[in-house]
Amino acid sequence: MALFDIFRRRPPIRDTRALADFIDQNAAFITQKGIYEHSRARAGHYAKVLFREPEFQTAADHSRWRAYPLGLAMVSELVEGVLCVANRENRHVQVAAIGDLTLAEFDRYPVPASMDDQTWGALRAELSQRVNQFGLHPPKWAKDIPEQYAQRYFDLMPIHEKLRLAEFPTIRNYLRVTMCNIHDEFTKRADVLALVEALGSVAKG
User: Is residue 102 part of a domain?
Assistant: First the structure.
């Protein structure tokens, strides 16, 4: 019956495990899709040849893993902004719980083959710093969250810089639109009150 799966609504997000999966899956999606789709567009008719090249595969994998923490930061900030509305008084507790959840997802993955322990550790430290700062400003609109990450993400594209000089606006718009889509999905699936309670329990535990 797999044919009919596309018509089924995705399950509600009511607990921290489902929330962590949502953050991880969408972080991976937003980083990988942009990298591979942009590369495919730039390569044009030669995309199939390019994607079979070992050098490109290595470069794309390196870019993907370096961009993954940026995706985690963007999606977890979006999640925190939605849940903040229902828990403004204890926002600092919720920020800490979402931060711990996000870092736990990062820690599920071993150090990628394309980088060393020190680099991977530095990316984790940077992610930790970013998530701890969510509570220092009002929640942002989904479309505005990528603004501080867009240039960093763009610079990771596995395409020679001379071939992507004028394409930063395209990448930034991709991130903005994708974050809006992720926001729409989260607001439809999230049981906000249940998640606020679950995150509060994690913080107390």
Answer: yes
- The string of pLDDT tens digits covering residues 126-176 is 999 999 998 888 999 999 999 999 999 888 877 666 555 667 888 899 899
Q: Is residue 5 included in any domain, yes or no?
A: no
Q: Is residue 7 in a domain?
A: no
- The pTM for the full model equals 0.86
CA gyration radius, the chain: 18
* CB distance 69 to 126 below 8 Å: yes
